[in-house]
Automatic annotation (TrEMBL):
The keyword Isomerase applies. This is Triosephosphate isomerase. It is an enzyme of class 5 (isomerase). The gene is tpiA. Pfam families: TIM (PF00121). HAMAP family: TIM_B.
Length: 251
């Protein structure tokens, strides 16, 4: 039985005051980690203050990106070692916005995954296809290609413990969520790809999220599906009430 994981991705939103206010508003209402992993991926700037404010809470934190080296002359980058030292649990990597606007490649994403594991954190690896690929009926082969490249040389133990988010690009921030059956089918493609690379035991353990216009009103439809173990949520994770409502739907 895989534990559900609901992760908010705030992207480049909120001020420091708003991030602190959110943390204080939700911290005592987060369900037990024994039941669901509840994660907020905030801008890197707010991780340290949110880390202080979430003290004694079940709320977990994610960075939205990091570099693959721990230190050095890499102006503007975020060190995975520094994130781990602060107690940050997860790092989101390979989000389609980073692939598109910052030209991140599968090779770079793979190096980041290795650095995140080396520092004892868990990657949330995003994959997903464009509308063009979807309409051409090539989603499965696209996803298989991304996952195979992004997981290169990771161990079975690492892949068992990680999170993979299937996020069709055409459903992100558009309000046009994928049908729950399609989400289940493509999350199943992710699982089959992991099975092909690492075997059945690993494929049964890896947690797979759906992401793309998930909200409190539709999350239950996705969570009811066999291959969907959670959600990666942008817009609906920004407000305390909405984030808590997402968690309530799964606990
Ligand atoms: C995301 O940011 O990964 C995302 C899925 O956004 P939204 O929920 O707003 O579509």
């Amino acid at each position: 039985m895989r534990k559900p994981i609901i992760a908010g991705n705030w992207k480049m939103n909120k001020t420091l005051a708003e991030a602190k206010e959110f943390t204080l508003a939700v911290k005592d209402a987060i369900p037990s980690k024994d039941v669901v992993d509840s994660v907020i991926g905030s801008p890197a700037l707010f991780l340290a203050p949110m880390n202080c404010k979430r003290k004694d809470s079940e709320l977990q934190l994610a960075a939205q990106n990091c570099f693959w080296e721990n230190e050095g002359a890499y102006t503007g980058e975020t060190s995975p070692a520094a994130l781990a030292d602060m107690g940050i649990e997860y790092v989101i990597i390979g989000h389609s916005e980073r692939r598109e606007y910052f030209h991140e490649t599968d090779e770079e994403i793979n190096k980041k995954a290795k650095a995140i594991f080396a520092n004892g954190m868990t990657p949330i690896l995003c994959c997903g296809e464009t509308l063009e690929t979807y309409e051409a009926g090539k989603t499965a082969e696209w996803i298989e290609g991304q996952i195979t490249a992004d997981l290169k040389d990771l161990s079975a133990e690492q892949v068992s413990s990680m999170v993979i988010a299937y996020e069709p690009i055409w459903a992100i921030g558009t309000g046009k969520s994928a049908d729950a059956n399609i989400a289940d089918e493509i999350c199943g493609v992710v699982r089959k790809t992991v099975e092909k690379l690492y075997g059945n035991e690993v494929a049964e353990k890896v947690r797979i999220q759906y992401g793309g216009s998930v909200k409190p009103e539709n999350i239950a439809e996705y969570m009811a599906k066999e291959n969907v173990d959670g959600a990666l949520v942008g817009g609906a994770s920004l407000q305390p009430d909405s984030f808590l409502a997402l968690l309530s739907a799964v606990k």
